[in-house]
Amino acid sequence: MAMRGLLLGCLLLVACQQEMATQPSYRPLEPSTFFADGRAARPLVPGTVARGQLKTDTHFYAGQVNGQFVDTFPFPVTRAVLERGQERYNIYCSPCHGRVGDGEGIVVHRGFQRPASFHIDRLRQAPVGYFFHVITNGFGAMYDYAARIKPADRWAIIAYIRALQLSQHATLADVPAEERQRLLEGTQ
In angstroms, rounded to a whole number, what is the distance separating the alpha carbons of residues 42 and 26? Predict the structure, then answer.
């Protein structure tokens, strides 16, 4: 008896079909007599933005506000952000710019053009938005990394570059008081 019920259920399921499955449809770029322009593919509505592509936060996606480079980060710079920035920097930037940002990367030793050191005054004083712009669009011999590095990772790299710059030009006054005392005790 159970076997007959199972067989009947299977037959009913096979008999069901969606009406949408039998509707006429067009293949991409196939001609159509339905529309006046003869195309089955419809043009996009003016102002259409692809899903995930509405980038209205120009601070985050362009490093600019009102057409000017920003000097602030679009999110808090934490230890995790700096560690991510170091990891991404070592992958994408250090081959040319060197591990400490001095422009002495491995490709320079193989005959390629030397990039500017991040430690020159012009780049130490440049707003962080400038670095974002250069990473995104390229500059001189450096090609753009927009397709290779996500915006959040570009910002993390810039935070790490700022840490490199500080590390090369830090003074004893930049060290917190409790750490400064510990350093002074260690040198005696």
Answer: 11
User: Which residue type is seen at 73?
Assistant: F
CA torsion angle 35 39 40 46 (round to 10):
-90
Give the structural domain span for 115: 75-182
The CA dihedral of 8, 9, 12, 17, to the nearest 10 degrees, is: -160
Cβ distance 123 to 117 under 8 Å? Answer: yes
pLDDT digits (tens, 9 = 90+) for 64-117: 999 999 999 999 999 999 999 999 999 999 999 999 999 999 999 999 999 999
Angle between helices 128-137 and 151-169 (to 10 degrees): 130
Domain count, the chain: 1
Give the CATH number, domain containing residue 150: 1.10.760.10
Q: Does 154 fall in a domain? A: yes
pTM over the 0.85 mark: no
Cα–Cα distance measured from residue 130 to residue 63, given in angstroms and rounded to the nearest whole number: 7
**126 part of a folded domain:** yes
Q: Which two tokens stand for residue 87?
A: 């990891």
Residue in the block written with tokens 């159970």 = 2
- Taking the C-alpha atoms of residue 156 and residue 75, their distance in angstroms, rounded to an integer, is 10
